What we know:
By secondary structure, the protein is of the alpha+beta class. It has helices at residues 3-22, 68-90, 96-122, 159-208, and strands at 24-26, 31-33, 41-45, 49-56, 133-146, 149-153.
Amino acid sequence: MRALYISLFLVIADQITKLSVKGFSIPFLKVHYDGMAMGSSIDVLGSFLRLTYVENPGMAFGIELGGVYKFFLSLFSVLASIGILYYMYRIRNEKFMMRLSLAMILGGAVGNLIDRVFYGVFFDYAPLFYGRVVDFFDMDFFKVSVLGHTYDRFPIFNIADVAVSLGVLLLIISHGKEPEKEKQTELTELTDKNEELNEQSDNRKETQL
């Protein structure tokens, strides 16, 4: 299951970038890194792309949840990740595009899952399953008004969010192409059989002659 290396890479990249933004401390190794201040921003490509440190207590892209819903979201994320892993094992011999899309979704899901399940305990601000997801990519966005609210920037997100979104998009594209490939395969098989029958018929005619 080589596709799992992609999931592992995404989880590691996601956690390294989050800890670089949030900061961390390992007392027994005497390691301490402050990271960014909550709410602060660093321009990367002017105002178009900034690193802005926020923590999201809910779902991806700043969709907030609270209380018992947050616990069930974390629990669902655990079960969903296990389900994706099991399904990847079931289709381990299937086409790489399918396995790649699921590997990206799994990597992103586990990346955010670590925040939700463990960050509250690691950083001593909440019990298990009640952590907050670290977000930092802050992109400019064309102005759009929804229900009286005007938005001019995309909701702040992280590498895990990107991995899940691209994985889902890739999954949709690969599924969309699958029927065409199946039709092409069936057509090729029918053509081959037809040629085979024609050859057999020609051989019989020659034998009769």
